[in-house]
Design brief:
This protein is α/β, with parallel strands linked by helices. It has 9 helices and 7 strands, in the order E-H-E-H-E-E-H-H-H-H-H-E-H-E-H-E. The chain is globular and about 55 Å long.
Amino acid sequence: MRPIIDLHMHTTASDGTQTPAELLEAIKEKNIALFSITDHDSIENIDEMILLANEAGIPFIPGVEISAMYNGQEFHLLTYGIKTDDAKLQNILSVNQTIRESHNHKVIEHVSTFVPEINTTDYLAYERNPKSGGWKSENYLSIKNITRSLNDFFDIVGKMEDQLIFPKLEEILPKLNSLGYPVVLAHPPAYNRRQILSFSTLDELRDLGLSGIECYSPYFRFESDTTYYRNYCKRNGMLITCGSDHHGGFIPTRVMGVPRIVAQQISYDRLLRFAR
């Protein structure tokens, strides 16, 4: 059986429902031969996963998914080979975490203007269970029966004046590149209203330091789009990676190891030196 690769998964460190130990058990069951966890702007579970993966004898590439703004949109940068004691990386993540926490609070303030029983004092006292997946404001509104789905939550957020704004990609990507980390564009169909990104856009990202593109992801609907990004990577000597964007029970439709990609279909050789 050819080895399965999955380089994009989430744990309880961000919006996944599984602890590192639980995720690793599932990885064994799925016969995944190389993997990475890439929590949103968090490396909290990396050191634990390094220890667990070493004990299990499964190669693990430490990673993180960093949010940044590009042309008015939120883009996600899969950053691999990270070091948890890297102060400069920690600073980048800390800024994003502060932005997330502030926006969570603003969401509750917004909802409190039209739902009297919602208030920020009660929200601040609320302690979420990390194994619920998602994030604090989303969890809180769900248990208060204000939202019944992620779509409900995003409908509320979309009507807010204060949107979630991260630092510019043009600033973050070169910083990550200067730290020696390969950076891969996560799930490209998530941007630009699901239209393919132009060559000029991809060229700009490449020139800013982008190392590769996640050409296999549940976000892809058309094989032609996968081919488009694969061919771009091949022409430019860039990494071709894959990832399920697995979140455990929080987003059940994103299944670990799906799309089922084997090593021969991608080009991740430059990442192997970061395997732990």
